[in-house]
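Chapter summary example: a protein plus adenosine monophosphate.
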Amino acid sequence: MPGPIIEKPPMQTSVTPNLVDYASARDAFSWDTAAGMLTGLPDGGGLNIAYEAVDRHAIGAAANRVALRCLRKNGQTQEISYTQLRDLSNRFANVLRRLGIGREERVCTLAGRIPELYVTALGTLKNGSVFCPLFSAFGPEPIQVRLARAEARVLITTEMLYRRKVDRLRNALPNLEHIIIVAEAGRSNIPDTLDFHTLLSAADDQFTIPPTDPEAWALLHFTSGTTGQPKGAVHVHAAVLAHHVTGRLALDLHAQDVFWCTADPGWVTGTSYGIIAPLTIGATLIADEEEFDAERWYRNLQEQRVTIWYTAPTAVRMMMKIGLETTKKYVTGSLRFMASVGEPLNPEAVLWGQQAFGLPFHDNWWQTETGGIMIANYATMNIKPGSMGRPMPGIEAAIVRRNGSEVECVTQPDVPGELALRAGWPSMFRGYLGESERYRKCFAAGWYLTGDLARRDADGYFWFIGRADDMIKSAGHLIGPFEVESAFMEHPAVAEAGVIGIPDPIAGEVVKAFIALKPGYPADDTLQRSLLGFGRERLGPAVAPKALEFRRTLPKTRSGKIMRRLLKAQELGLPEGDTSTLEEAP
Ligand code: AMP
């Protein structure tokens, strides 16, 4: 299906792109050779993400370069050099050691983009513990589930988030021994918690990273499933090679870059590219503590002289909404490369990038499980707007059909199927915490099956079609309907709950709940508003339904499973498909 192509001249900027020619870069690539870009721990001590991200720069040419520039809510700018980041993360590693937190034990964060989050992440990795960021816009219920599943021993959070969300959960979380609070100002004196800065200033700034097996656990990222509880995808220190390589090739990061990744630290992009990749390259990372605001974002691009910007389609669409007039008020000429991830990037958004910034957006594709970018549009490769691009060097991607344990590769172009990746790249997840069977089911015949439907065109470009399951993508956040339904089932009025995603022009999809009430409860506006409020309170605004409809009963299979697909077909006026397993007419 040919569309417009954005052709790239061989050399667009004064900076030589890291990937000059896609085909030859792919042919020449091997992970073994790429490993030479990393340093490894001294004396053959293995591979540690934090060493590659910070310590090796702190003893090199980038020692005094700004590693992290934090734009604080109070309007101040806080800069941390590579040397300072090394010392601060050393201190935090010593804090964990003093608290008796050992290898592969989980240290969770519930915080926005504050400097302490970065110090925690890197200190945790130095200590050999597992860094597990949680999304601060979650309500208490998803937070409790994830802390419990992670068996977190330590949580780092802010005073405000503690009071709003964590305090009430403490009794339900017996494994959670230490809560470390980042105070808004001064020191925190919340009972039964520790104060982050008191601990940090008392700790030594020298820390020798113990030998680290590249296969040792490093990161835990929760992602939702269509059934059951959220899954904890485990990543290992070896993943840093993929972070580094994809940062260089897919985002064209160079050491001199000012890189702004707008992702929330509670999701995988916020770690892989919001912390690790740019630091391994020795670039300067911008972290804005404030939430999205279109004008503020233009100002950031201008004032911070951002050269590479990595954002998400929902944000791009929100910026498009305020019009090109606003764009003209700002000077964003420092920008060299713009990329987007997390949900389909519509062709109009790619082209709008060209009008607004003189550059197209480069869409790329990956998942929590893949740990890093797998398919991308590269700086020097022609863009087909609407396509996710072509597989990274070192990554084999295919469109497949599953047939039991057999996997058949679709060789014809433009034939839809499931997107699969040949297993074995460095940032591939190594398990779902405590769920080996669920992990095993993601693989067949040497392929990792992504759960996404896509097609590949005759030029080898991949095009996203949709999810193969009932997962919802709202403003880039993957939401599991089961988790939302479970929360509603705890409401006294609710007999049945079914949750789907419905199209939304800005957020891609928003969550809609269908509720069947218990006898005696009136299906009126008051109860509808009250249930929507209940959802927001329990789940947090990013996950809670935006719409709710009462039904007398919900369509179910004979085994009692809510037929979300049927709800969706009915909602969207689409053919209802095979309803032979339907238990009763709705
Ligand atoms: P998560 O694990 O939360 O990062 O979500 C991963 C899912 O987001 C993928 O399986 C896709 O369904 C979707 N996704 C990520 N990137 C893209 C993209 N560039 N285009 C379309 N969907 C995407």
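Key point: The first helix runs from residue 22 to 28.
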